[in-house]
Amino acid sequence: MRGKSVLLIIGGGIAAYKSLDLIRRLAERGVKTRAILTRAGAEFVTPLSVAALTGEKVYSDLFSLTDESEMGHIELSRSADLVVVAPATADLMGKLAGGLASDLASTTLLATDKRILMAPAMNVRMWQSPSVRRSAETLARDGVLFVGPNEGEMACGEFGPGRMAEPLEIVAAVEQAFKVRGGPLDGFKALVTAGPTQEPLDPVRFIANRSSGKQGYAIADALAAAGADTVLVSGPVDIAAPSHVRLVKVTTARDMLAACEAELPADIAVMSAAVADWRPDIAADSKIKKDADHRIPALRLVENPDILATLGHHKKRPRLLVGFAAETDDVLAHAVAKQKRKNADWIVANDVSANGSGESVMGGERNQVHLITATAQESWPDMKKAEVARRLVQHITQHFRETSS
Ligand SMILES: Cc1cc2nc3c(=O)[nH]c(=O)nc-3n(C[C@H](O)[C@H](O)[C@H](O)COP(=O)(O)O)c2cc1C
Predict the structure, then answer these.
(1) Measuring from each residue's beta carbon to the nearest atom of ligand 1, which residues come in under 6 Å?
(2) Which of 9, 18, 142, 233 gives 85 a disulfide partner, CB atoms 3.0 to 4.6 angstroms apart?
(3) pTM above threshold 0.90
(4) pLDDT number for residue 267
C-alpha cells in the first residue's frame, strides 16, 4: 500500500481520537492521508492535531472560498485512492444512504468515484436501531465497505456492538481494499450463500439448524481478496461481514433464493448455506397458544425450493456453480449424486457429524472436506475454515485460467 493515499473523513464521535492513531499507522506504511473533519468531529479532536499528523491542510467547510479555489470539493473527493470514514457516525451513514449532501463530508461522499470504507462507531442502541440498520444495509448494497463495529464496553458504559474497530484493524481493511484491484478474479462477479435459514412457525418460533456461516463468510472474504466483486447472501448469523463484500441478509430459504436470483448473472456461485429442506406449511400470524385440553399441534412440513438445483438449471446459470454437501454418512457417494442431480460443477463435501474431539463442523473453526470437480476428487486434510476458503479460491482461479486460455 506504499504510495497510496486515503481521504479520511473524521465524524463527530468519541472514537475520533482513535483516528489520530490511524493516521500515524497509515503513515508508517507509506500511505498519505488528507482529512476532512466534520464540525462535530472538531468537538472531539482539534484541526491542529489532524493537520500536524497528516502534514496537510484539514478541510471542514463546504462553503470556504479559499478551499474551493485551492481544491474544490469535487476534486477533493477524487484526490485519494480510497475514502475512509472513521468514525462513521449514524449521521454520516444516514446522509450517504439517503443521498444527502448537506456539508463537506456528505457532499464528498456522494461525489467520490472511489471506494468508501466505513468504520462505524456509536452507542449500541443507535447501531441496533432500525434506521441505522437500514442505512448500513443500503450502504453495503451500494458497495460501501465496512470494518467493525466491534463488540465491547462503550464509552457510555453500555455493552454490545458499536465500538469503532481498532486502528490496526482499519489499516488491515484499507490494505484489503487496495489489494482487491488487480487480483486474479478482478472483473468476475461471485455470489456466495452462507449460514442457516430460519423457517417461521409463528412470529416467535422457527425451524433452523446449527450452521454458523463461518465457512461461507471465509469463502466470500477469499473471493473478494482475489478481486471478485463479491456478494454474500447470508441467513441469520452473528458474525460481521468481511469488509470488502456486499452483504444481503435474508431469513428464509425462499428469501435466499429470491436474493440469489436477483444477483444473476454471476461468474461464480458458491452455495455454502445450510438451507432448510422443509418449512412449516403455515406460518401463523400470531403466537400459537397452548389450548386448555393440552392438545399438541401437529407440525406439517412442506418442501422448500432447492436453491442449488434452481441455479444449476437456471437460464442465467453461473459459469462455475459450486455446491456444498453436508453429510453425516457415506459422504462421497451422496456428494457425487448431488452434483449430478443438481447440475452443479463442483461439490465441496464435508462430514458434519462431530469429530473425535466432539467439536462439530457446524459452528466450529475447522473443516475437513473433499472437493469433487468434473474430473477429479481430492480429499483435503483437516484445516481452518479460512484455509479451506483460500484453497477453494485457488482452485477457482486456476479453473478460470485454464478455461480462458
Ligand atoms: C459526547 C458525544 C458523543 C457522541 N458520540 C457519537 C458516536 O460515537 N457516534 C455517533 O454516530 N454519534 C455520536 N454523537 C452524535 C454526533 O456527534 C452528532 O450526530 C453529529 O451531528 C454528527 O455529525 P457528523 O456526522 O457530521 O460528524 C455524539 C455526540 C456527543 C455530544
Answers:
(1) 11-15, 38, 40-41, 87, 89-92, 105, 121-122, 126
(2) 9
(3) no
(4) 97
